[in-house]
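In the design runs reported in the main text, the only information available to the sequence generator was the tokenized backbone. The following block is the verbatim input for one such run; it is reproduced so that readers can re-run the procedure and compare outputs position by position.
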């Protein structure tokens, strides 16, 4: 039972970090990864927020490396 509690706590921490990261990422960081998204609508940003929340380690890695979504530039 204690292992299940640790798994739930880990998932909660992952989700909390994902929420905070995705809010920052869709408002400020997305333009650094993909310059074509500069000036995009709030509808587009709302649409990609759940994916950014779930895949925040990948998006964070892209920000650190300075690579684009396609990985072809940089």
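Verbatim output:
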């Amino acid at each position: 039972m204690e292992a299940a509690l640790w798994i739930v706590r880990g998932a909660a921490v992952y989700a909390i970090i994902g929420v905070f990261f995705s809010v920052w990422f869709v408002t400020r960081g997305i333009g650094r990864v993909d310059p074509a998204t500069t000036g995009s609508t709030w509808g587009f940003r709302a649409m990609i927020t759940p994916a950014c929340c779930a895949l925040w380690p990948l998006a964070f890695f892209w920000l650190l490396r300075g690579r684009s979504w396609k990985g072809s530039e940089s």
